[in-house]
Specification:
It contains 11 helices and 10 strands. The protein has 274 residues and is an alpha/beta fold. Bound molecules: D-glutamic acid (DGL).
Amino acid sequence: MENIRQAPIGVFDSGVGGLTVAREIMRQIPNERIVYFGDTARVPYGSKSKDTIIRFSRQIVHFLRTKGVKAVVIACNTASALALETLQPEVDIPIIGVVLPGARVAAETTKNGKIGVIATESTIESHLYNRVIQERNPNAQVFGKACPLFCPLVEEGWLKDPVTVEVANRYLEPLLATGIDTLVMGCTHYPLLRSTLREIMGDKVNLVNPAYETARELKALLEEKGLANDRQDIPADSMYQFYVSDAASKFQRFASSILPFDVDTTRLIHIEDY
Ligand code: DGL
């Protein structure tokens, strides 16, 4: 059997958004293999209940385990907020989400203690960002704002379109009024809107990207647990594998537009079987 260090990392999301997390992992730890699953049949997660998100996430972790992954990254903010705590004790491999790494950095880097969090409705309602930020920085004030229109706009490719700018202005206006100095982009799709968000928030507001912070945390975790891949000669065709629950060619087009290479194979699976 192959050495556990050469086993892949399982990364999953409700759909394409988690590719922003996979992309950061590819950049920061380029010799790690990845098995990515996008739940394109059941997206969006951002408006669903906790019980449903836990059930979906549990099935996906079961599927990823069949691929021999050595660790799991829940690349979806909503699933991280609603399912990570429940799933962690159920699995005997490391499993991390994107909320904690982003929240910690926001709590530690804010100067005036005023932090904005933009995310899906379910993530905002879970109050997990608030909880983690306030545990680290009890004086922090957290202002959450659900931005449900951002995901479809990103998937439409309207990253800098006037319609997106208008929508972003409406969502961010109340946050701007609070005087925040830090804004957490608490949904997988939002880092793709970075330049629009930057323009509206101005240079003085620090934009925290949980995808970037999660890749850093994963790197440290793999090293600490003796799981980091120590070989460079992994065959290119086994580096990255992509699985979805529906609409594989649509997924593939989006993936090829945001990853630094063309995704030529995406496999369709029946996630309800796991
Ligand atoms: N991936 C989700 C998240 O980060 C956004 C898309 C969805 O609602 O499923 O919260």
